[in-house]
Design brief:
Blueprint: H1 3-35, E1 43-48, H2 59-63, E2 66-76, E3 79-82, H3 95-109, E4 122-128, H4 132-144, E5 152-154, E6 157-159, E7 163-169, H5 174-178, E8 182-183, E9 185-189, E10 205-209, H6 210-213, H7 224-239, E11 243-247, H8 255-267, E12 272-274, H9 277-287
Parallel strand pairs: 1-2, 1-12, 2-4, 4-7, 7-9, 9-10, 10-11
Antiparallel strand pairs: 2-3, 5-6, 5-8
């Protein structure tokens, strides 16, 4: 081959290699843009107590990987307002604006899930502070406007959704809920419900004040009798296909709080209750059992 012809072939080959490289580089860049940075897995034990008190209700908890959030509600002039006490009521802070609409937007953005790629429901624990029956009926009416978001119950069958609403607080809500053949919410039971035959399709969660069941606050060894009681309660809940949660556990940062959290995880408790979002996230990412992030 002459030098001139050899140069022409070399130039053509280089040009073709360059054009082939452009789509390859574009594909790589597109893939990186599509996948983005690695996602941190959601934390199935993380429950945000009084979530609405954080600067960005719902959003702060989700950004820390939480899979359960709690909102206290009052029925005021036909609207559900989110607050801890009547003195804190604000007409702008509605259940719709703080939770229902943001959850809807999030599920639409993430192709049907609250956390991207996380297909287990996120729990919305709605704590009714007063007027249980009337408040629940309005809650039921509002949830129906967002029915595609929520886990539902119909004639004995539960169909999972992106969000599971569980009603806690004022016990008067139980009567209208139990009478429904179809509903978009479930009931938060108490320890007295553990030995009953009420199905998990009505009571999927049992909650209790830590201080009514245990004296230990994390300092020193966990009394053996109390450790056994904790494991018995968790076992009874799980045997009935229910989850279990304790509120009012120690929540001041330090060794005592972490000792209680470790015992709860070791016993198989389903939710760790906190107001300290970064503190619990840090603990679970460091100490979580292998099955915690799913």
């Amino acid at each position: 081959m002459s030098p001139t012809r050899r140069r022409a072939v070399t130039t053509l080959a280089a040009a073709l290699a360059g054009t082939a490289a452009v789509p390859a580089l574009a594909h790589t860049a597109h893939a990186a843009e599509r996948t983005g940075p690695p996602r941190r897995r959601p934390l199935r034990h993380a429950h945000a107590h009084n979530d609405y008190l954080h600067p960005r209700p719902l959003h702060d908890a989700l950004s820390h990987g939480f899979t359960s959030v709690e909102a206290d509600i009052f029925l005021v002039d036909g609207e559900l307002l989110v607050a801890h006490t009547p003195a804190e009521l604000d007409p702008a802070r509605t259940l719709r604006s703080l939770y229902l609409e943001p959850l809807l937007a999030r599920v639409r953005e993430n192709d049907g899930t609250v956390h991207p790629g996380h297909h287990r429901p996120v729990q919305l624990l709605v704590d009714i502070k007063a007027d249980g029956a009337a408040c629940y009926l309005e809650l039921d009416r509002q949830l129906r406007a967002y029915r595609r978001l929520f886990t539902s119950y119909a004639d004995g069958r539960v169909s999972s959704g992106a969000v599971t609403a569980v009603v806690s607080g004022d016990r008067a809500a139980r009567v209208p809920m139990a009478a429904q053949r179809r509903r978009l919410a479930f009931y938060d039971g108490r320890l007295d419900d553990l030995p009953t035959a009420v199905p998990a399709s009505f009571i999927p969660l049992v909650s209790s004040n830590w201080n009514t069941a245990f004296t230990w606050q994390g300092a020193g060894p966990f009394p053996a009798a109390e450790r056994e009681r904790l494991r018995t309660l968790v076992g009874a809940a799980h045997a009935a296909r229910r989850r279990i949660r304790f509120w009012a556990t120690p929540d001041t940062p330090g060794p005592a709080r972490e000792a209680v959290w470790r015992e709860l995880l070791a016993a198989g408790a389903d939710h760790l209750n906190t107001d300290d979002l970064p503190g619990l996230e840090r603990f679970l990412r460091t100490h979580r059992p292998p099955a915690d992030s799913v």
